[in-house]
Amino acid sequence: MLRRSYSTKTLNQFPDPIQKLSKIMMNCPKLGLESTLNESGIRVSEELVEEILKKFDNAGMQSYRFFEWASKQRNYTHSVKSYHIIIGSLAKIRQYKIMWDLVNTMKSKGVLNVETFCIIMRKYARAQKVDEAIYTFNVMEKYGVEVNLVAFNGLLSAFCKSKNVRKAQEIFDSMKGRFVPDSKTYSILLEGWGKDPNLPKAREIFREMVDKGCDPDIVTYGIMVDVLCKVGRVDEAVEVVRDMDSNGCKPTSFIYSVLIHTYGIDNQIEDAIETFLEMERNGIIADVAVYNALIGAFCKVNRFKNVYRVLDEMENKGIPLNSRTCNIIINSLIGRKETDEAFKVFRQMVKVCEPDVDTYTIMIKMFCEGDDLDNALKVWKFMSLKRFVPSMHTFSVLINGLCAKEEVTKACVLLEEMLEKGIQPPGSTFGRLRQLLIKEKREDVLEFLNEKMNLLVKEPLCD
């Protein structure tokens, strides 16, 4: 499905130390990791550690063990960025006690900053731990970090991005006397109400912003266009764009991508095309997000010849595809039940851009739902060979697929691997496997997995 000209390109290979460390991280059991790393002879640097931590963001405790090993190496000190990456990774798997231990370590080294606490607030809010997110904000001063407008905006953003704009608004109303809100503060709330979506409240925030003397900037306008599009007021969104242009505030490629995406969803392909052409007439250079929106619009109306033309244009202009580009095409083909073509796109995609966790999950789910467990397992193996760590959702999709075929032993091995990485499976996934183990009278295996689950939940957590 992707054009042949794309298939000649190859991915940039990681430098050798990263390849070597990635292989160790993927293949070593937890008890042997430190000794294997010691034997590797690799000298760590800030950049190398940051790259590995980013690459293994989903690896849970394995990533933390690497972090601990690196801290013991001669002439090496963790960067603030490394601390932030691992704190986010630990919070993702709800290892809050270890996370706060690292905060205390950062305090002792004098490297704590506002961003540290903003990361923690975001992770708590995403886990719907409202009190813990507010506690993190309130405890900053005890750690010697100033509670300023950046921190306040960080708290509001944490709740807005986790779809709890009402809590963000409540906090804003109770604390705005303590801080002087800026355009970013109002933009955060505006975006939150847009995701709700609640257009009257968004308009109210916009008016308050202007009344308080905060002039809307390009970000604010972009959010307002997005809000209007989400609630089906695309004509008003277009008027906002025209008002911007007449006021000398040039619309961005993001704003055009929102309009094109909205027209695509509404099957208004001609309007999507015209908006793209208008953008070009206005001298705005299309980026990959704009092209992805246009590709999505063409996919929606099954005009795949146009998709190929867009891909050719991207290549001619030197705009590389990203995983989102191919995920849009793959999802569209799956929706049309063209699974063979979707698999072709996937196989060609790995030659031109790095798949993301969604790509692998989409493909594994497609094969599991199509009763093709062999290919699902091949994709899983390929993911492992690429040193790509699956997410909780990816694990769950394959475990559920194995359970559907009553491949209980393989499902148990996968669940144990999941727990080893510090990732807790959803209740529905564990429950499905539990029923099969009881059916097969394998209570001993169930007891073993229960113990590992309890160990994961109870021992390292502090929430």
TrEMBL record:
<feature type="repeat" description="PPR">
    <location>
        <begin position="322"/>
        <end position="352"/>
    </location>
</feature>
<feature type="repeat" description="PPR">
    <location>
        <begin position="113"/>
        <end position="147"/>
    </location>
</feature>
<protein>
    <recommendedName>
        <fullName>Pentacotripeptide-repeat region of PRORP domain-containing protein</fullName>
    </recommendedName>
</protein>
<feature type="repeat" description="PPR">
    <location>
        <begin position="252"/>
        <end position="286"/>
    </location>
</feature>
<dbReference type="Pfam" id="PF13041">
    <property type="entry name" value="PPR_2"/>
</dbReference>
<dbReference type="InterPro" id="IPR011990">
    <property type="entry name" value="TPR-like_helical_dom_sf"/>
</dbReference>
<keyword id="KW-0677">Repeat</keyword>
<feature type="repeat" description="PPR">
    <location>
        <begin position="391"/>
        <end position="425"/>
    </location>
</feature>
<feature type="repeat" description="PPR">
    <location>
        <begin position="148"/>
        <end position="178"/>
    </location>
</feature>
<feature type="repeat" description="PPR">
    <location>
        <begin position="182"/>
        <end position="216"/>
    </location>
</feature>
<feature type="repeat" description="PPR">
    <location>
        <begin position="356"/>
        <end position="390"/>
    </location>
</feature>
<feature type="repeat" description="PPR">
    <location>
        <begin position="217"/>
        <end position="251"/>
    </location>
</feature>
<comment type="similarity">
    <text>Belongs to the PPR family. P subfamily.</text>
</comment>
<dbReference type="Pfam" id="PF01535">
    <property type="entry name" value="PPR"/>
</dbReference>
<dbReference type="InterPro" id="IPR002885">
    <property type="entry name" value="PPR_rpt"/>
</dbReference>
<dbReference type="Pfam" id="PF12854">
    <property type="entry name" value="PPR_1"/>
</dbReference>
<feature type="repeat" description="PPR">
    <location>
        <begin position="287"/>
        <end position="321"/>
    </location>
</feature>
